[in-house]
């Protein structure tokens, strides 16, 4: 029987959700002059990793783990639903790009790298849109020009976070897949 959410897949999904949640605590929050705050975080590595290991359903772990973190932090609680969507897209896109290889149980570094890059790009497009519309216009009440001028202040942290995820997630995915394969813990993916 080939069900999408068999017990093993649910266990891996829960584990990756917990890892995404915990990795969000490895964060340095920095206030910026206009438009709120930005942060350096290691959570993006695990968000991309969940997509690379689990395929498209890894987006559920990325989104849910990040949204749960937001609910534990008063700075982010009000926007947990946005985080669920944006971080979920990061894992979803990474997972979609490795779907065929993941199904066969043979990830390649090149495909993981493409998945990581595209997952990060998709996330940051949504993150900057959220920063402009939600943070800038709605929450801060900034004029559109000022809200747009605040976006470049978030670029250094965003580039750092994306670079770290793109560099770290593919080799981690390959190493973890090999270890899981050796131990007989392979996943059935949709």
From TrEMBL:
<dbReference type="InterPro" id="IPR009825">
    <property type="entry name" value="ECF_substrate-spec-like"/>
</dbReference>
<keyword id="KW-0812">Transmembrane</keyword>
<protein>
    <recommendedName>
        <fullName>ECF transporter S component</fullName>
    </recommendedName>
</protein>
<feature type="transmembrane region" description="Helical">
    <location>
        <begin position="42"/>
        <end position="69"/>
    </location>
</feature>
<keyword id="KW-1133">Transmembrane helix</keyword>
<feature type="transmembrane region" description="Helical">
    <location>
        <begin position="109"/>
        <end position="129"/>
    </location>
</feature>
<feature type="transmembrane region" description="Helical">
    <location>
        <begin position="159"/>
        <end position="180"/>
    </location>
</feature>
<feature type="transmembrane region" description="Helical">
    <location>
        <begin position="12"/>
        <end position="30"/>
    </location>
</feature>
<dbReference type="Pfam" id="PF07155">
    <property type="entry name" value="ECF-ribofla_trS"/>
</dbReference>
<dbReference type="GO" id="GO:0016020">
    <property type="term" value="C:membrane"/>
</dbReference>
<feature type="transmembrane region" description="Helical">
    <location>
        <begin position="75"/>
        <end position="97"/>
    </location>
</feature>
<keyword id="KW-0472">Membrane</keyword>
């Amino acid at each position: 029987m080939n069900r999408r959410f068999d017990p093993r897949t649910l266990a891996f999904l829960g584990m990756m959700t917990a890892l995404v949640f915990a990795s969000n605590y490895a964060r340095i929050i920095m206030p910026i002059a206009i438009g709120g705050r930005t942060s350096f975080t290691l959570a993006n590595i695990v968000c991309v990793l969940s997509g690379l290991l689990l395929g498209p359903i890894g987006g559920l772990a990325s989104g849910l783990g990040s949204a749960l973190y937001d609910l534990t932090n008063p700075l982010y609680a009000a926007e947990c639903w946005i985080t669920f969507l944006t971080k979920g897209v990061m894992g979803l896109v990474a997972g979609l790009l490795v779907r065929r290889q993941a199904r066969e149980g043979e990830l390649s570094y090149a495909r993981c790298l493409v998945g990581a890059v595209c997952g990060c790009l998709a996330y940051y497009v949504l993150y900057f849109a959220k920063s402009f519309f939600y943070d800038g216009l709605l929450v801060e009440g900034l004029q559109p020009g000022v809200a747009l001028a605040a976006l470049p202040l978030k670029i250094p942290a965003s580039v750092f976070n994306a670079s770290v995820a793109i560099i770290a997630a593919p080799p981690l995915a390959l190493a973890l897949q090999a270890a899981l394969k050796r131990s007989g813990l392979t996943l059935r993916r949709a």
